[in-house]
Specification:
By secondary structure, the chain is α+β, with helices and mostly antiparallel strands. 20% of the residues lie in helices and 25% in strands. The chain contains 17 helices and 53 strands. The strands form 14 sheets. A 9-stranded mixed beta sheet has the order 44-39-45-46-53-52-51-48-49, with helices on both faces. A 6-stranded antiparallel beta sheet has the order 6-20-19-22-17-14, with no helix packed on it. A 6-stranded mixed beta sheet has the order 12-7-27-30-28-29, sandwiched between helices.
Length: 1019
Amino acid sequence: MKSILWDVLACCLLSMFFTQLPAQEMDDPGLKKVMSDSLTMYIRKQIAGKTTVKSIVADAGKKQLTVTVDENLAYLPFTDKLVSQIETCVRNLLQDSLKKYRLTLISDGQPISELIPNVYRSGKKDQSRIFNNKANKVPLVRRESQPFQIRDGLAGRHIALWPSHGWYYEQKLARWEWQRARMFQTVEDLFPMSFVVPYLVPMLENAGANVLLPRERDYHREEVIVDNDASRYGSIYREINNAESWSQASGCGFAEKKNFYLNGENPFSEGSFRQTRTTTKKNTSLAEWIPNMPEKGDYAVYVSYKSFPNSTTDARYTIYHLGGKTEFKVNQKMGGGTWIYLGTFTFGKGANEACRITLSNLSDNKGAIVTADAVKIGGGIGNIARSPNADGYMEGTSKHLDGGKRESIAPGLPIPFSPEVSGRPRYTEGARYWLQWAGVPDSVYSHTHFNNDYSDDFQSRGYWVNYLAGGSPVLPAKEGLRIPVDLSFAFHTDAGDSPNDSIVGTLGIYMTHHNNEVFENGQSRWASRDLTTLVMDEIVQEIRSSFEPKWTRRGMWNKSYSEARMPNVPSMLLELLSHENYADMRYGLDPKFRFAVSRAIYKGMLRFLAGQYNSKYVVQPLPVESFSSRFVGDTQVQLQWKAVNDSLEPSSQPTSYVLYKRIGDGGFDNGKVIKGKTSCTVDIDKDKIYSFKIMAANDGGISFPSEILSVCRKSYEKGVAMIVNGFTRVSAPASWPAKDTITGFADFIDHGVPDKVEFNYVGSQYEFYRSKAWTDDDAPGFGGSNANYEQQTIAGNTFDYPALHGACIAEAGYSFVSASKSSIANQQLGLEGYDVVDLILGKEREWTVSYGAKSPQFKTFPLGLQEALTKYCQEGGNLLATGAYLATDLWDNPRATKADRDWATQILRIKWRTNNGAVAGRFKAVASPFEAFKGQFEYYNELNEESYAVEHPDAIEPSSREAYTIFRYSENNLSAGVAFKGSYSSCVLGIPFESVKPAMRSNLMKAVLLFFETNKPNK
């Protein structure tokens, strides 16, 4: 009995002894190595690299085992499932005595379970990461005229983002220059803008967000300022007073008193502004701004005003434009003293009442203040003048990672420099210059006190975010514009190349190790990791699914980059791909890739903010397809379309559609909602050209628009034409994936097709030798590109060619309707009964993105279209088909078949000679049995701002006795067009009709239609 008692006592004493032992680090190199190797295997399933176990600490008393791993493990996108798998893996490596210990794996100072984003957690959320602006009930800008409501998107959210760098003044060289090298036909200072401006920003705005940029978003060189102080060039500011009159206010406002601005000069402190009290009654007072526009176009509209504590939250702006009028409510309690973007609208040339901006004092806020200052329309030319600082300049550039030692000051150059403006479109310039033009204090945009524009530019972006948010619930103790910014996003591309044609891929950067890992309002900075994870997940999933299954996912760095560290909101810096790596850029230059990546970023932001606000996650739909129109009455048109499913996002199903209408050469209206149906009937007036586009909608927002279809019913019609829009291609320039010594982008063969407009193109690639190494940004080696186009926008596929063709057809006396190629090919709509079919093929050709991991697109004559055209011709129709590659795509294409070529010879009555038909841009009519064809014509053959360029149109020849050459290229007499008369008539041109110079189009169309009329088919 004593022995048993002694044993029990001994066990108790031993247990007490072990509970008093401190936690011990296990010195077991073998265990550390096998753990490191096992964890590295998990890393390499998702990203490149390896990880190393730094320490293993066992606490016997607490039964706790803590394994600390280097920060590389934190690069993984953790989920509950992945954390469980990793913990199980590590536990299985332990000796039996440790397997029952509680296990904690730590990387980057956090248990890996804490690295799971809140929205992925099945259990308790980390409330310290919730960045919820609950006090933000009224957003900065509300678009009142849209006919649909966004319930579960980004309505009320404020997002600050920017595309990379920009043209800047380098003081040590005393010149303006890019911050990066010209490579692969672009430069990083412009390249991310080709994602942000045409795709990402509209997606966020279509979801209801207010998006703020520290760079100009309008690529027009024209800029018109209308101001109460003075307006240049014939623009007019005026006031209409009723019960409450406008009066001069106390304080500074905007004034454009200088042609250029020097250090610290602020145009928002050089003028005055107007104010009045609000009224809830009808007898309102108005301020009006009437711009004198130099050219017709689509222009961004910005307003400015002053903010006060008693400012109205619903200042009512109305923009009158060529599509009608669009109304906004602006919360003037925030955003005063800078340019606030409202939208982009079509304005006519000159000054007139039809195109103006008004501000009313009608308000739901009784007795509040409404203020009026300047209005800015268009992008403009940079007007910030720079020169080397006479007191010296900072040596070197500290890039993004600016937490190190302070740069030294070099003495100024002994040259009497004069201040110099960039002379470039403002959208090309860096943020530092836009911010000065936008009234931001120099303490925000020049932390080097004007000594180093490079450092000022990248640092200004983060400080600008805080300036926006100052005084809001985000930064209540700081001064600023009181805009409650929800997140910030820096869009960049990275340096570095891969010698084996592999992808460098996508990197995300955030910063938590600053200010005790909290933002100024106390929220955890680890929210930035949540944002980064979600955006990275969406990007990589989208690219691997839609483009490149082997796309590289790089890590998620927690590092002190200024654009990730400085903003006091959840922030991410994205390095999407390497602009120095050819394999990456073969995707990056493709518009479809840009759209898909931008949509992925939008979805990541949406998922993050839905988690922050505990709101429903609904993604806006994809654009509709198979759009068609047909007459169903003398003055009625039926429109039809189909929804497109997003295989990666079930929530994106549309619940309604919005139909937008344009009359003549005006602008589009604000739209009309069509609930549930994929068709509608529209009444029209005779002799007017109507154009339509459709956008799909749901509770998350609205899609991008469809192509534009047009119709016209003539009072005394000669017949009815069906215009088939077969030009759907947007693509990167020609390139080849050779792994030998020479490769690159060959835009001299095919420039590709920009999506509507391209403003990131700098010039053709001139260096094709892979072995040519980088020397500096002016001599970047392989991929080096010219600079002759970097101030010019390049026209692309407008998706609006039925209106252009239709105007010429209507002028010749024909009514017309139009349809997409897919609606004809899938037999949604037939061609029977139309007197003429006009097939638009533009630069359509079968095309794959980069290495062709996914199926090719844009085939000129898919089988369904061949069958529809065959049936139409066999019934005695009149077919006009024009396109630069309509024969090349059926002959000089490895995917084309003999059946394709036989069809072209038998139905189109053509055969291919060469794709290199001409380069000079001229063709002429030649003798043939068809007297309708006469004269000489020109087409756009070089890159320009008016029309896409046709570098090498097809040379085509007749394939039967009844077919004849009707046009030849002027410089070489190769056959440019073929006409056929038999049981049906056809006219096929290797020059796209819409690429013919405007002054000559009508005559060409009249000749074609006269040929159809005077050469009736021998049925």
